[in-house]
């Protein structure tokens, strides 16, 4: 007697984009995140609509905090500005309004000690 019957006919091994690839990414999730150290960020999850078998790409954009010097604060704000420009978002980022937005990015491969090989957003293409 079988309790569970599964169909594995459409199962595939998730893929990665190779090298430094230019790809159109779509935001499929955004949420506020606080690290164990208390640092706040925006956790963004992207997929690659043109290549549906590509593993989702996760990005944590750090928010400026008290104690950041001017250069660190500027670096964080500049990265947010490029993200917003790339995906056509205004500077009042809402975790729901960005869902479905698309933008072009340079995506690279990275070896992660916890998750193995994965893709990461290297550059937001803003046209500037």
Gist?
The chain has 128 residues and is mainly β. The protein has one helix and five strands; from the N terminus they run E-E-E-H-E-E.
Q: What is the beta-strand fraction? A: 35-45%
Strand order of the largest sheet: 3-2-1-4-5
Distance from first to last alpha carbon: 63 Å
Largest sheet report: 5 strands, antiparallel
Average pLDDT, to the nearest integer? 93
Q: Number of DSSP helices?
A: 1
SS class: mainly beta
**Low-confidence stretches at least 5 residues in length (pLDDT < 50)?**
none
The best one-word shape is globular
In total, the number of domains comes to 1
Work out the helicity level.
10-25%
Question: What features would you describe in this structure?
Answer:
The protein has 128 residues and is mostly beta strands. It has one domain (21-124). It has one helix and five strands, in the order βββαββ. A five-stranded antiparallel beta sheet has the order 3-2-1-4-5. A hairpin with a 3-residue loop joins strand 4 (102-112) and strand 5. The chain is globular and about 60 Å long. The relative contact order is 0.22. The mean pLDDT is 93.
How would you describe this structure in keywords?
single chain; 128 residues; mainly beta; globular
Write the layout of secondary structure elements.
Layout: E1 21-34, E2 40-47, E3 57-62, H1 70-86, E4 102-112, E5 116-124
Antiparallel strand pairs: 1-2, 1-4, 2-3, 4-5
